[in-house]
């Protein structure tokens, strides 16, 4: 007997959701609801400089307005809480110590790219290949450097290829040593990095299906490595196409592209879901529809694999 499907939507409350966030949320919701599974809402608010409780509250209200409910998580509670990463630091510390006891982490005194380590990396942010400089420092060199600055901590990546089969895109493989090198799992300010936190949380919350944007596809091999090292079951991943503006830009919170404030002022929930269903290949016309009406006929085979261009006329005034 197959285990009950447990999926999640895990946004970062760093601003109002935009059309691309809602597109991913809808597909994550449909994939779980079509299978009769459980949906968890988790707030990935690791970065204290960017994430705010008021954003989380608005985000939850926007999901409810759309008709995208959840069974467990933020504002609801459940057996796997807390459901905010900012309240789960002790769990990350325990996993960090586990890796430390295995001799797989080391202090790093370099500064470049550290500021992004607590956030989910996105395509276009730029991938920085770490040279491994601090891995070979002697104990004396580490002690001397520690007098002038606090260290971040990196995972020593083995020289091997990591592959997996994406439920939507098929086979994907990456050589971690050549793609990213040793990556940060704890910043110098003590904040645990996204890669360690998300693996810890999905393992603890028994998540066995992860639906998210294709901008996180190349993070997956790093997370799979952590699942294996920590002895956690690996979920099935589905990476969905990104929504792009007509000039090829990825829709983002930073650019205030079609955020939920503007969308709610212009459309009813059914109208907006209908337009998203059209972009996802789930509706031939984009006519108004409720999420529950889409679940019965949902199939990943209908969802495009490539990024989707959003025509201005579709969301114009």
Written account of the structure:
This protein has helices at residues 19-34, 53-66, 89-101, 139-146, 176-179, 194-204, 220-230, 260-266, 269-279, 291-295; strands at residues 6-9, 38-41, 72-73, 105-108, 152-155, 161-166, 170-175, 183-186, 209-213, 236-240, 243-244, 308-309. The protein has 317 residues and is an alpha/beta fold. The model has no long low-confidence stretch (mean pLDDT 91). Helices cover 32% and strands 15% of the residues. The strands form 4 sheets. It has a 5-stranded parallel sheet, covered by helices on one side. Helix 3 (89-101) crosses helix 6 (194-204) and helix 6 (194-204) packs across helix 7. It has 10 helices and 12 strands.
Strands, helices and their partners?
Layout: E1 6-9, H1 19-34, E2 38-41, H2 53-66, E3 72-73, H3 89-101, E4 105-108, H4 139-146, E5 152-155, E6 161-166, E7 170-175, H5 176-179, E8 183-186, H6 194-204, E9 209-213, H7 220-230, E10 236-240, E11 243-244, H8 260-266, H9 269-279, H10 291-295, E12 308-309
Parallel strand pairs: 1-2, 1-9, 2-3, 9-10, 11-12
Antiparallel strand pairs: 4-5, 5-8, 6-7
